[in-house]
Amino acid sequence: MEEIVGDISDDFETKDQPEFIMLGENHYRISARMLIDDVNDLFGLDIDNENVDTMGGWLLDQKYDVKEGEEVEYHGYRFKAIQKEKNSILVIDIFTTRKLKNHVESAESEEKDEPEITE
């Protein structure tokens, strides 16, 4: 099919930037395309949303008109919209006081409750 119409973009394809980066102790940056299930596994969360699959979709589902710099709190974590393009969130920062699961910390060295919305 791609031979006929050219490159086909998949909503879940990863781009050049990594999906998960540790920016500092308890500060992480993720691609908004990262799957909710993957974030649940990384952070030991139980984010459940039947309407969306990605963290960007989840954040927009919590607050549809979220602006860059706005945050949603969930179980001691803060999810901050860092970069938006039109109606899509591209990058999310996660702040926590909890430690990630051990298997995630070693991997990164290689490289429904109601959320509270804050500004």
UniProtKB/TrEMBL annotation:
<feature type="domain" description="Transporter-associated">
    <location>
        <begin position="21"/>
        <end position="98"/>
    </location>
</feature>
<dbReference type="GO" id="GO:0050660">
    <property type="term" value="F:flavin adenine dinucleotide binding"/>
</dbReference>
<dbReference type="InterPro" id="IPR051676">
    <property type="entry name" value="UPF0053_domain"/>
</dbReference>
<protein>
    <recommendedName>
        <fullName>Transporter-associated domain-containing protein</fullName>
    </recommendedName>
</protein>
<dbReference type="InterPro" id="IPR016169">
    <property type="entry name" value="FAD-bd_PCMH_sub2"/>
</dbReference>
<dbReference type="Pfam" id="PF03471">
    <property type="entry name" value="CorC_HlyC"/>
</dbReference>
<dbReference type="InterPro" id="IPR036318">
    <property type="entry name" value="FAD-bd_PCMH-like_sf"/>
</dbReference>
<dbReference type="InterPro" id="IPR005170">
    <property type="entry name" value="Transptr-assoc_dom"/>
</dbReference>
